[in-house]
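fyi for ur records
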Amino acid sequence: MPDHGPDSAPDHRPDDAPDGGRRVSLWLWSLLGLFAACVPCALLVVEKLGSALSPVPLVLAVLAALAGYVLAVRAVAGEWLGQRPRRSRILVWSAAAVLFLGSVAVLLVFRPPPPPLTRMSGARDVAVAGFAAENGRQDKRVLDDVAATFANDMAARIPAATAVRSYAGEASLPLAQLADTRRGALERKTARFADETNAEIVVGGLVSEDRAGQTMLRPAVYVRADQIPDSPELTGWFLGEPVLVARGWESARARAQLTGELTRRIGALTQFVDALDTWRNGSPAEAGRILTGLLDAEQYAGASGFVPPDLVRLFHGHVLEDQAYDESGPGREGLLEDARSDYLAIGRDSPAGRRAALSLQGNAYRRALGPTHSCKPGTVRATDLAQVSKALRVLAADPGMTELGRIKANANLAQVEQCRITARLVKDDGMVERAVATVRTAPDLTGGADLRAFAESIAAVNAAGRGDLTAALDRIRDAIAHGQDPVRRAVWHGLLAS
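which gave:
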């Protein structure tokens, strides 16, 4: 007979009962969820209290948490997993991984935003973003100290800047990309940085050492496109000529010499931006004085600054031509001749060479108008206007011309051709409308709105001359809609009323 004694009773454990299994599962998943949530919650608390973690410490903390989490899962569920089939073990580990990844996702979503950067309130502010080590040999703390010292010294030496502040250590711009040809991420982040800080100019740079141990700094500046729409050559990031730090950062004299050189270059740039702003706001004489001072300074300092001398000459000619609007007789002719000399001083191989060639044609057009400053029959120089028209057609088709330059060439071509029609030198062959159509369909570029408005005003005059008053009204309304110059808009409103 079978033995039914107490020693032969089957081994019944609480975990084998359905209720016991559910309790163990509930206990297991509760602990796993608790472990998965602890580290992200702790990091959130740390950052909420003000100790924001940079990306590297954050990644290290998450990896350390992952290692501890794996050990915790093994310790808590090890015995239970050991007596389960392989399929159950895979399910538990998969679920634990999902819990941990979900908790990390919660951490990234609910991380408090970094503290906002200090916003400057001036109209011409300079932000020093800091300097980056090109070869990784420089101490970041030393470079941040140099940036702060430079900002303090520059604030006292550049009257054209309303405020100068160092953001080294606060901003995290990838300045190392200054050494690369592709700077997309740097340009985008700098644009957001400039908007947040209200900086008109951002200063940075790359630091490197040669084989002899000498330190070199290549300063760089970023200028917002909306600040100088007339000079796209200076928008975005661009590097200047390197500066030798003769005795390293330990020398106070070397730092002072570096600050002096950087201040000279940044000071010239801020004065140039100030001159363009002054010119756009209707004070060409004052802008001319600023640009004349820059040209005199370049004769002694060479071409190591951020603003090429040819670009200064180009705009010096522009402001002289604007001054000529209010003059007549010999005074007007003298200003136009001085502007022409500025344009001729710019070589063809210069980066500003094509712009100077285009400006020369604008200068020739103004001189061809004669003493009446108008296109009345019998008052203009027919041969000069024909030559200007021919040169503008060539420039408008020049593949080396920038897109903005081609837009300007077509707008000027429409102006010259309309002048020839008004002066009864040629018949309307549709060239004005074709040139305006090219401007109208051009890409939307910074500085292009005023050119389109100007072209539309010419098209309005052309349509009125053909007797098409409906088209003339539409064109002048388009000019008013796109124009930003208040003086021209007032003229166009008067034309619309007439």
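The first strand starts at residue 125 and ends at 128. thats all i got for now
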